[in-house]
Amino acid sequence: MSEPEAPPPSTGYPHIAVITGSDSGIGRATAVALAERGFDVGITFHSDEAGAKRTAEEVRSHGRATSIRRHDLADPVTAADVVDELADELGGVGVMINNAATGSRRPVLEMDYEEWRSVLTVDLDGAFVCAQRAARRMVAQGGGGRIINVTSVHEEYPRVGSSAYCAAKGGLRMLARVLALELSAYGITVNTVAPGEIATPMTGQEDQPPEPGSRPGYPLGRPGDAREVAAAIAFLADPSASYVTGATLFVDGALGLMGPQAAGALSSADWRNR
Prior knowledge:
Elements: E1 16-19, H1 25-36, E2 40-45, H2 49-61, E3 66-70, H3 76-79, H4 81-90, E4 95-98, H5 113-141, E5 145-150, H6 163-183, E6 188-195, H7 226-237, E7 248-251, H8 259-265
Parallel strand pairs: 1-2, 1-4, 2-3, 4-5, 5-6, 6-7
Helix pairs in contact: 1-2, 1-7, 5-6
């Protein structure tokens, strides 16, 4: 007689997501994508309250509940309280998406320690405390959960003038892998989504539709759309992704594959100033 099949891992987590930095760009697109899939959504913003309200309106248009909080990751420990506030208001948390981030374009020789720390505090420390707070609630609830960190292709590939940002995103990738190991016993998966250039306010494109042919050095010839990244996040948030953990999903239009190829096509050293 054959052995009975083992039951699948528990995926009974609540369809409630908390998304940091969901007032615009990838965060807003993710909130809408998850609402379309039946999730209630906790929305956070740093300064754009109007943008957060627009996101909330879109979530409600899909018949889902939502709540908004201001979230200042310059003070990560205090900011993490927002995770608990949103979970209390919405009835739990099944998915935590660390999307909020900042950056710097200053060369190492010109950067002071305060600027270095400010980027690491928001992009890495903030994600740590929010993930920890959400994970504690998921463990207490039972039923598993999902933690998804939005990083960047720069979790893997360096960029001149972005030392703090690259260090933070690389650290966030490794944090996700450790969390994937530690939280697997509770049915919680932890992954990162690494976008390339996406047409959002963070890249100075104000959520514009990507223009075909505008990036001839990219394999797909254009920046990405925030909704393309949101689709990847939504996949990882779904119960069907229960066997994906500790992974990075690159959503970069194959930009990362161009490193050696692009280097060989350069005809000057101007890249040092870009």
